[in-house]
Specification:
Elements lengths: L6 E14 L2 E14 L3 E5 L6 H8 L7 E11 L5 E3 L5 H7 L4 E4 L3 H4 L6 H10 L6 H14 L5 H4 L9 H12 L6 E5 L7 H18 L2 E5 L3 H7 L2 E6 L2 E7 H6 L4 H8 L47 E5 L2 E4 L8
Parallel strand pairs: 3-8, 3-9, 6-7, 7-8
Antiparallel strand pairs: 1-2, 1-4, 4-5, 9-10, 10-12, 11-12
Helix pairs in contact: 4-5, 4-7, 5-7, 7-8
Bound molecules: adenosine-5'-triphosphate and nickel (II) ion.
């Protein structure tokens, strides 16, 4: 297996469905994206568009009735070996998760066991993947907490989760994620439940840690302000598909997909979760047996007959691709 030498992750044609009583939910359809060494990639889109399912799928955290139905997720391991995460055994993926790929979830409380100290969480994460004694693990924990700007880390490692503020808990979860020096950090809306100033600090922290440790980051967010501040490259998702990808400045200066344009125009308060774009009539279509073709077509001001067919991928600039019929060469 081989992927470009500068790639850490290359996802191709990922397909995930949920077999519910109400019908088959096509949560993620034909999603392809890349993550290069040392870059922060943002996945953005309205609620329910498939951001979390995408990253959960590549780390194999999809539970029934969900099924990964197709695709590849090539990952370059720390030792340089390239594996397809989707075809590894359960044991092999467990060895990678929490070690080479760290996952930080939206809710830091659920990531921490109330019965154990912060220090113990570090120890557990480390001992799962290598031999280390508790004393060394705690020393490493203190160093990582220091890096995440947690005051008096020596006493914090002895604290229980409830003794820390929400912001401190999320910093701790990020520090725990770093304890095995991951190749890839996935942060799924890491600041959603925190107040605005703390959000900004956590993001600044992720940015600093990325630069310092040289890992790659996938940042899931609904906050376009965050994207502009932190990300290097962006993938815009709509209804389970990627509709546009571009370097961050390019996306903001020269958005091409009608959905991206509306997304950029219609978020007055970037700290609010985008549940629904008020200025676009309609809502995200049901992902149960979605119609073929462009999934945005019933909300798109420019939709035409063409859009009943699957939109082509069009290169509109350097590393800038859009999946839309509007951009095909005319004539
Ligand atoms: N366990 C499940 N059973 C059925 N459908 C599911 C399940 N988990 C996710 N889905 C569906 O998959 C689709 C994608 O969900 P996903 O959580 O990836 O969205 P998201 O983009 O992360 O949204 P948010 O911004 O709200 O976190 C949604 O339509 C959701 O209803
Ligand atoms: Ni999500």
């Amino acid at each position: 297996m081989s992927i470009g030498g500068d790639l850490v992750l290359s996802v191709r044609n990922l397909d995930v469905k949920f077999y519910t009583y109400a019908g088959v939910v096509h949560a993620v359809s034909n999603v392809s994206f890349d993550v290069y060494k040392g870059e922060i990639v943002a996945l953005v889109g309205e609620t329910g568009c498939g951001k979390s399912v995408t990253t959960r799928a590549i780390t194999r955290l999809i539970d029934p009735p969900g099924r990964i139905e197709g695709g590849k997720a090539y990952f370059r391991r720390r030792n340089g070996e390239v594996v397809d995460l989707l075809s590894l055994s359960d044991e092999e993926i467990r060895d990678i998760r929490g070690n080479e790929i760290a996952y930080v979830f939206q809710d830091p409380t659920s990531a921490l066991d109330p019965l154990y100290t912060i220090g113990h969480h570090f120890y557990e994460t480390m001992i799962d993947h290598r031999k280390i004694d508790k004393k060394n693990a705690i020393q490493h924990a203190v160093n990582l907490l220091k890096e995440t700007f947690i005051p008096s880390p020596e006493s914090r490692v002895k604290n229980y989760p409830h003794e820390l503020s929400g912001g401190m808990r999320q910093r701790s979860v990020i520090a725990i994620g770093l304890s095995n020096n991951p190749v890839l950090l996935i942060a799924d809306e890491p600041t959603t439940n925190l107040d605005v100033t703390i959000q900004a600090q956590i993001l600044e922290l992720i940015k600093d840690l990325q630069a310092k440790h040289g890992m790659s980051v996938i940042l899931i967010t609904h906050n376009l302000g965050v994207v502009a501040e932190v990300a290097h490259r962006v993938y815009v998702m709509y209804a389970g598909k990627i509709v546009e990808e571009a370097p961050v400045e390019e996306l903001f200066e020269n958005p091409q997909h009608p959905y991206t344009r509306l997304l950029l125009r219609t978020v007055p308060d970037p700290t609010k979760k985008i549940e629904k774009l008020e200025s676009i009539p309609g809502t995200v279509p049901s992902l149960i047996n979605p119609l073929p073709g462009c999934r945005f077509r019933d909300r798109c001001p420019f939709a035409s007959e063409k859009c009943l067919e699957e939109p082509p991928m069009v290169e509109v600039g350097k590393a800038h691709r859009v999946y839309c019929w509007l951009h095909t060469v005319k004539g």
